[in-house]
Every structure is written in C-alpha cells, then in structure tokens.
Amino acid sequence: MDKRFNPIPIQEQVHLRKQAVEEVLAHPDWNLGEAARHLRTTMRLTIKEMAKVTGLSERTLRDIESGRSGGTIATAEKLLGLVGLRLSIRRK
C-alpha cells in the first residue's frame, strides 16, 4: 500500500479493486498505460508494489504508464490479471 495513505481494511481494498475494474471497463478507449495507471492509483499501489504483484519490472510499468511503451500481449495479461480480467482478441 502506498505509504502516502493510511492502511485500509481488506473490505475497502476489495471495494477499491472492484471500483477500478468497473472504471476501466467503462473506458474502452483508454490505452494500456492509462488503464494500468488507473488500476494502480485507484488501488493505492506504488509502482514497486504493482511490479511485485504482477511480476513485471518497475521500468516496464513506468514505460507503459508514461506511453514510452505500448507493452506486449503478455504484459497486458499480467496487468489485467491483477484484477481478474483477461485480454481477448476477436474479429470485428
């Protein structure tokens, strides 16, 4: 949990996670960086904490959030997997 915030009960953590997911799903126009930053900040995680739980490097997360990298499909799956989502590709 980001040290700028006081620790919160598990119920509130679950609520924040659900809120983050709903907001990402409500914005299909967001790119991966925007979605990743929103998930991380809504759940009150630092880059370091998010890197640890997703298995991605801090550098990769910073690059994705800043738009320097679009990430890979595997990276997107790791980020989305954090909140129980998965990436799918389908025909138009």
Itemize the secondary structure elements and their pairings.
Blueprint lengths: L9 H16 L6 H11 L4 H8 L3 H9 L6 H9 L11
Helix pairs in contact: 1-2, 2-4
Calculate the terminal CA-CA distance, rounded to whole Å: 40 Å
Could you give the count of β-strands? 0
Mean pLDDT: 88
Number of domains: 1
Would you state the CATH class?
Mainly Alpha
CATH architecture: Orthogonal Bundle
The helix-strand sequence is HHHHH
Kindly identify the CATH topology: 434 Repressor (Amino-terminal Domain)
For the structure shown, list the relevant keywords.
92 residues, single chain, mainly alpha, 434 Repressor (Amino-terminal Domain)
In short:
By secondary structure, the chain is mainly alpha-helical. The protein has helices at residues 10-25, 32-42, 47-54, 58-66, 73-81.
